[in-house]
Amino acid sequence: MVRFIIEVAKFAIVTTMLIIGLVANAQKLDNSLLWKISGNGLEKPSYLYGTMHAVCETNIDDKVMKAFDETNQLYLEVDMDDPNLQASMMGGLMMKDGVTITSLITEEEAKKLDAFLQKNIGFSLKMINTFKPFSISSMYIPKLLDCPMKAVDTELMNISVAQNEEVFGLETIEDQMAVFDKIPYDVQIEELLKSAETDLKKDKEEMKKMLTIYKSEDIEAMLAFTKESENKLASDFEEELLINRNQNWIPIISKVAKEKPTFFGVGVGHLAGDKGVIKLLRKKGFKVEAVK
C-alpha cells in the first residue's frame, strides 16, 4: 500500500502541474517556448522556458541547450530533485474531515467509477476512497498517450544535474497542493466521473491536440485550446491556478536573475496573456524576447 501511495504521489505531482500549467489569458505573442530575459540591470541574460508535464517528445533542442550553457542554475515550479518531495506530496493526498469519494456520488456512479478505476489503474474504488479525486485522475495520465510518458521538467532537471548545477523551485509542493484545496471536492469528482463516463475517450482527444500544439510551440494556440476545454479545474479556477501564482513568481524571478543567470522552466500556460509571466516581467522593466 505504501508503494501504491508513492506512485499516486508521483502522478499527482504531474497532474497538479499539468492542470495548473494550462490555464491562462490569451494575448498575442510569438510562437516560442524559449524566451530570453535581459535588461533591467541584468549583467547576463536568463531564460524562460514553457514546459509540459506529460509528453511523448520533449521540445528540447540546440537553442535550449545553448541557453543552459549560458546559465548557472535551474528553477522549476517546484524543486524536482528534493528528496523529500514525494513525502511532502503524500501528506496532501487524502481528503479532509472524513470525506470519501463514495459519500459524494450515487451508488450507481460508484459502481461505474469502480469498474473504470480497476480497468485503467488496477485498483478498486474501495482502496482509494479517501484520496482527493484529482490525485486519482493523475494515475491514468499515461493511458492518455500513445507512447511512453516523458516530462519536460524531468528532462530539464536531468540536464542541470549532468552539468552539476543546482535545481530550485519557485514554490513548494505544499503551495501547489494548497491550490487544489481551494477547488471543491465535488468539482474534482465531476471531472473524474466525466473521464469514467467516456472511458477516457474525451481525455485522449484533448491530450492529442495539446501535444500537437506544444510541439508547434504556439503558446497562443495553447491558450485558445485551454479556453475551449471542458475541464472545470482549468476553466473555473484561473485566479487560483494561474494569476496568483504568476504574480508570486515575478519577485522571485527578478531577484534570482539579478543574482545569477538562471534557466526558468514553468508550465507553458503560464507564459502568455496580460497576466502571464512574459508580460509581467516586461512590466517590471525586463526585456523578454522569443528565441527563434
Automatic annotation (TrEMBL):
It comes from Flavobacterium jumunjinense. Its main location: membrane. It comes from the Bacteria. Its cofactor is Co(2+); Mn(2+). This is TraB/GumN family protein. It is a single-pass type I membrane protein. It is found in: Membrane. CDD domains: Tiki. InterPro entries: TIKI1/2-like, TraB/PrgY/GumN_fam. Pfam families: TraB_PrgY_gumN. Keywords: Glycoprotein, Hydrolase, Membrane, Metal-binding, Metalloprotease, Protease, Signal, Transmembrane, Transmembrane helix. PANTHER family: METALLOPROTEASE TIKI, METALLOPROTEASE TIKI HOMOLOG. The lineage of its organism: Bacteria, Pseudomonadati, Bacteroidota, Flavobacteriia, Flavobacteriales.
